[in-house]
Write a structure and sequence with these properties.
509 residues, alpha/beta, five-stranded mixed sheet, 21 strands
């Protein structure tokens, strides 16, 4: 029978098993404070979204604006043990337009190999005039360049980034994963775009070799200071290019880290100004992005102490001039070069003899016993010169990277009355101009040293009665000498400092 109208039928079996619907709990109406908070959160979210969109848009705009080149050859046959290199990231950082330099000397090259776990990095600089074998490679216009034996920097200047990458891989066996070219003339502008860059300078031969060295410790530098720091103080002092490559890397790393700092990212105007300057100064390979450069800057900035090893390619001879040419080259030590890069590939410690770094500030070493002390030449002589230039025969050796300087100095010595014997290149390296002499020709050597301001005497029993003028960094000119007048000629400095000398306070960054 159907239920009567207005009566609810009793629940049946199916209704008893069905769960009962719960009545919603009534909520109190939103007050004015809750509504204002909601609107504020929505507004804040909108602002954050706009800022993120702006940064992403600017990032992709500049990332696309940077010049890109076909530079990499990650499957090149010259790459050694690719399995051992899996996961590592190797950056080839090339600075062109070194202030005050032209030709090959205007190129500063650094290879940065960062381990797969990011806890270790090796930085290796390349002499721009090192004599290397460049394999067949593609130039920027796509043409095939034939193999050549040439100065390292020539592979870039005449062949382009792809040829330089192949040369580095041929020499090292490393796989280059990222190419970063930087116009060093634009780096000071990048510094100014950020309103200055904080740097920390640990004293080293490289930092001291700048035209305008920076103070040790932490400071904030301007673009003008950066330009003076990049420029070599003496064009003949850094024939291997190690010093300028180190200064460029340190300044570039500091600049990139400042650009990626929270304060810069929160300042759209500064960020926009910097990224546009960077886009004009940088050239990268087709696969490298701004994110990769941020990783490089972060890795090199976060690592310290033994985690970063800075090395220079071992040099066998400076000033080598092949027969039939007038170009001076740096000859690399092939065995040492192979040992250095094998250590990088295998992830082991780089041999100590290849490591370069800051000036150590450890306590001075104890004075060695008298029997072990190196021979020390007498104090600087102030006696009058006794041997006229016409009675002196001197060999002139060029110990700098300046082509033809030995012949030029030889002509100047002849003009002062000296008899010039052999003219050639110094097989080793010197830090200053020296007059090397045997035990029986000290007075003749004093006359030679007096004619070349800044030259120091260096006795050498192995060269007999020979006087050698070795032109080194700091050479300026040849001057007349007066026989009979008192003159002071300094002796070569003794390398060991006095035991009582106080070590400078250590500088850390």
């Amino acid at each position: 029978m159907p239920p009567l109208p207005g009566r609810v039928p009793p629940p049946g079996p199916a209704d008893r098993d069905r769960p009962r619907a719960r009545r919603p709990t009534p909520r109190p109406p939103a007050g004015p404070g809750r509504r204002r908070l909601g609107r504020a959160l929505m507004a804040l979210g909108a602002v954050v979204g706009v800022v993120l969109l702006y940064h992403l848009g600017l990032y992709f705009y500049v990332d696309q604006k940077i010049d890109r080149v076909e530079a990499l050859a990650v499957d090149g046959p010259e790459i050694l043990a690719p399995v051992l290199q899996a996961g590592d990231e190797t950056y080839l950082v090339v600075g062109s337009g070194v202030p005050g330099q032209t030709g090959t000397a205007s190129v500063a090259t650094l290879l940065a190999s960062v381990s797969a776990d990011g806890d270790r990095a090796v930085l290796v600089s390349f002499p721009p005039t090192a004599l290397v074998d460049t394999p067949a490679c593609r130039t920027p216009d796509g043409s095939l360049r034939q193999p050549a034996t040439e100065a390292f920097a020539t592979s870039l200047l005449e062949g382009g980034p792809s040829c330089l990458v192949r040369t580095v891989q041929q020499l090292s066996g490393l796989r280059v994963d990222h190419y970063l070219g930087l116009d060093l003339a634009d780096l000071p502008g990048m510094v100014d775009a950020l309103g200055g860059v904080p740097v920390c300078v640990i004293p080293s031969p490289a930092t001291a070799a700048a035209a305008t060295p920076l103070s040790a410790g932490s400071s904030e530098i301007s673009g003008e200071a950066a330009a003076g720091f990049l420029q070599p103080g003496d064009s003949g002092a850094d024939v291997t290019g190690t010093a300028v490559a180190e200064r460029a890397q340190r300044l570039l790393t500091a600049t990139l880290r400042a650009a990626m700092s929270t304060s810069t990212l929160a300042d759209p105007l500064t960020l926009n100004r910097f990224l546009n300057r960077a886009a004009e100064a940088l050239t990268v390979d087709e696969q490298t992005t701004l994110g990769d450069l941020r990783v490089l800057a972060g890795s090199l900035g976060d690592l310290s102490g033994d985690a970063v090893q800075r090395a220079a390619l071992p040099v066998a001879q400076v000033g080598y001039v092949p027969a039939g040419t007038d170009q001076a080259y740096v000859l690399l030590d092939g065995t040492g070069t192979r040992a250095l890069f094998d250590a990088v590939i295998e992830g082991t410690q780089v041999p100590e003899q290849f490591i370069i770094g800051p000036v150590e500030s450890a306590a001075p070493a104890e004075e060695p016993p008298a029997s072990d002390a190196p021979p020390v030449e007498a104090a600087p002589a102030t006696d009058a010169l006794t041997v006229p230039p016409a009675s002196v025969t001197v060999d002139v050796l060029n110990g700098t990277g300046t082509t033809g300087l030995g012949a030029t100095v030889g002509d100047l010595m002849r003009a002062q009355g000296f008899t010039v014997g052999a003219v050639g290149n110094e097989p080793g390296t010197v830090n200053q101009t020296v007059v090397r002499h045997g035990p029986g020709v000290t007075e003749q050597a004093r006359t030679v040293a007096a004619s070349v301001p800044g030259a120091v005497l260096e006795p050498n029993d192995s060269i007999g009665d020979t006087v050698q003028l070795v032109i080194g960094p700091g050479y300026e000119t040849v001057v007349p000498v007066t026989i009979g007048a008192p003159v002071e000629v300094p002796a070569a400095e003794v390398p060991a400092p006095p035991a009582a000398e106080t070590a400078p306070a250590p500088v850390s960054c």
